[in-house]
């Protein structure tokens, strides 16, 4: 892990999401893979399961959009130390996601005092094939005290 303190901040946020197992953030079950606060990026792993598949056996587009939004949101909240809300989100589906494990790489491209902008790339962990990309903006809304769920 490149940045232990940043990783700890992200892990703390995600541990609160896991306390509500039926909610989408917990259901996605993203796992922190690596991160760097100084370089402003975070990587998560996503393992597909039966619950997120479309009728053709690939990951459903709604699940892909949700994983991108959630990965970017957790990255923004951990980076800023504030609550964040999605203000806009754009997803491009490039290849069918028929594999089992994916890497979501989030770049925080601009972080101001009220708005954070991100880009995400979703790649198949086994083949490295780029499957989807996303861009989003998040507005901050007050300090998030340590130990308070998101």
Protein model, in words:
The protein has three helices and six strands; from the N terminus they run ααββαββββ. The model has no long low-confidence stretch (mean pLDDT 91). The chain has a six-stranded antiparallel sheet. It starts with a helix and ends in a 7-residue tail after the last strand. It has 150 residues and is an alpha+beta fold. Helices cover 26% and strands 40% of the residues. Helix 1 crosses helix 3.
Secondary structure layout:
Elements: H1 4-17, H2 24-28, E1 31-36, E2 41-47, H3 61-80, E3 82-93, E4 101-111, E5 115-124, E6 130-143
Antiparallel strand pairs: 1-2, 2-4, 3-6, 4-5, 5-6
Helix pairs in contact: 1-3
Keywords for this entry:
alpha+beta; 26% helix; six-stranded antiparallel sheet; 150 residues
Oligomer: single chain
Strand order of the largest sheet: 1-2-4-5-6-3
Strand content: 35-45%
State mean pLDDT (0 to 100 scale).
91
The major beta sheet can be summarized as: 6 strands, antiparallel
Individual helix count? 3
Rounded to the nearest angstrom, the distance between the terminal CA atoms is 23 Å
Whole-angstrom Rg: 14 Å
Which stretches are low in confidence, meaning pLDDT under 50 for 5 or more residues running? none
**Shape summary:** globular
Structural class: alpha+beta
Number of beta strands: 6
N to C succession of SSEs = HHEEHEEEE
What share of the residues lie within helices?
25-40%
């Amino acid at each position: 892990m490149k940045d232990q303190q940043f990783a700890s901040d992200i892990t703390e946020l995600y541990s609160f999401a896991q306390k509500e197992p039926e909610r989408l953030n917990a259901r996605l079950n993203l796992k922190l893979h690596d991160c760097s606060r100084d370089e402003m990026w975070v990587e998560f792993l996503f393992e597909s399961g039966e619950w997120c598949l479309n009728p053709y056996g690939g990951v459903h587009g709604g699940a892909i959009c949700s994983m991108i939004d959630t990965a970017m949101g957790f990255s923004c909240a951990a980076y800023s130390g504030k609550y964040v809300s999605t203000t806009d989100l754009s997803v491009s589906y490039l290849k069918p996601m028929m594999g089992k494990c994916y890497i979501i790489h989030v770049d925080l491209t601009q972080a101001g005092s009220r708005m954070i902008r991100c880009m995400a790339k979703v790649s198949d962990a086994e083949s490295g094939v780029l499957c989807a990309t996303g861009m989003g903006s998040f507005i901050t809304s007050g300090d998030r005290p340590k130990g308070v769920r998101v």
